[in-house]
Amino acid sequence: MSRLTEAWAVLFGPRQTHEIDLAAADEKRNPLFRWLQRPRLWWPAIAGGILILIAIAYDYGWWIVQGSGVRISSVFNHATPIHWLSELGYAFIIAWIVSITIEEGARREHLQEVKADRQLVMQDVFQAVYGLRHDPVYIRSIIETVLEAKLVRDNYEVTYRIDPFPADEAIAKGIDASRFVLLTLRSRYRLRSVALSKIHFHVKFGIPIRGGSFADIGKLTGIRIDDEIWGEDRLPGLIVDVGDPNQLFHSIDTDLEPGGSKVIQIDGQMVKELSDSEMFGFLHPTMGMSLKLNVNVPGLKFGMRARTASPEKEVHKADNRSGEWAIDGPIMPYNSVVLWWRSAEDDGVVPDIASPEVAEGGGEKRF
What we know:
Blueprint: H1 3-12, H2 18-28, H3 31-36, H4 43-58, E1 63-66, E2 69-72, H5 80-130, H6 136-147, E3 151-164, H7 167-173, E4 180-193, E5 199-208, E6 219-225, E7 228-230, E8 239-240, E9 247-256, E10 261-273, E11 276-281, E12 286-295, E13 300-307, E14 312-318, E15 322-331, E16 336-343, H8 356-359
Parallel strand pairs: 3-12
Antiparallel strand pairs: 1-2, 3-4, 4-10, 5-9, 6-7, 6-10, 8-9, 11-16, 12-15, 13-16, 14-15
């Protein structure tokens, strides 16, 4: 067993959180049995019973025959049951108020202490297993962003296509089309819940945008979650303000049951320079991804560089027209991938104008 596996078993073995363990135990335990196991809840009843017995003994019982007559108790009469029931009702109400205030407050305080103790144990375990003394804030950040994540993304597929900037758009906007390209993207993945209860979350996706003449070109063109589709007519209602005029963000609210998953597909386009790059980051832990690029602009040199926990590998590359890369292992939140491309001129190479690729304008467009 590796040291990482041992640490995982010690820290996150047969439990998820302390609160879940307590909740599960309370559900399995019979309520009456659970009440009987708490001696501190019995002393009011015992004290009350003793007082009642003292009163009975002091007053000689219900009926005491003296001589030829019967003496009626001055303590117990026809109104006694009514008084007892009302007083008992008041007692139950007071007990209920006490239970939901003092008892719950004490339980929350206990859970907070358990969390603090567990954090210290985690710190000690990391130190014992790896022989490293990391800052507690650093360890807490790793646990919150990776180990406590409720959503995992599986089989992340991203496809990019680089096309020449449309000539008619360039003329209408009064710009030089040779300076820019149109980058089209499609991302598709399965988002899976690893939580033990139903969760509500936001599907978010953002792309960089430009202002001025390009304001209407950079945009999302479609979002699909399972069988529900948001086209360009519905997308404006999903835009959220993130305080950055250079980013366009969309957000959709949805739910996932424990162990459930949804397939999400996002399409969009943006304006890029002829020599440029595209970087995207990961918000959720991700298990494996593939990246494909189809190039319909002649003379471009391109590549991909992953800044991820698992290394990338080149799957396919054909004559500067297309490329495919893959990451087979886990990808951590806030890891990133950079896709880059450069023109021959920016790369210090003068293209051959007699080249069939240049003469034919790049051939058939592919996605």
